[in-house]
Amino acid sequence: MGHIGHTAVDEGPQVVAEWINLLCEDLEWSEKDRAYLLLTETLHAVRDYLGVNEAADLAAQLPMVLRGIYYTGWDPSRTPVRPRSKTAFLERVSSRFRRQPLDDPERAVAAVFDLLRRKASIGEIEQVSNSMRAPLRDLWW
After folding, report:
1. Is residue 9 situated within a structural domain?
2. Is residue 38 part of a domain?
3. Please, which domain of life does this record's source organism belong to (predicted)?
4. Tens digit of each residue's pLDDT, the chain (141 residues)
5. 39: domain range?
6. CATH number of the domain bearing residue 92
7. 5 assigned to some structural domain
């Protein structure tokens, strides 16, 4: 594919690959498709646990291609979801791993949260984590 001349578009696939590679390294996984699914499902769950304004604020911190993934399928009128417990969050993410279940959903989600902490501003991550209930908030730190 040729260059378009817009950095965010031209470098988009490399940015996604970088995030997936970091997630694979952190979790000691070799399956990049699995890491992509974890990233996608965790981003969607985070987005749906937030109010509309906070969800948009977090999206603004994401690279363009990941922002598109984040917004895919979003229905702002259905957010924030209920219940918003840690158990419901982990079950939501885990439910997408039917063929090869997550060994440790908490560790997997925490790895995505850690990746977000490394890539977004600390102020935004504090706002996002503070929007969540304490048991789920603990996975951010």
Report:
1. no
2. yes
3. Bacteria
4. 555 554 555 455 788 999 999 999 999 999 999 999 999 999 999 999 999 999 999 999 999 899 999 999 999 999 999 989 999 999 999 999 999 999 999 999 999 999 999 999 999 999 999 999 999 999 998
5. 19-140
6. 1.10.490.110
7. no
pTM: 0.91
What is the rounded CA–CA span in Å between residue 91 and residue 3? 40
Q: How many domains does the chain have?
A: 1
Within-domain flag for 10: no
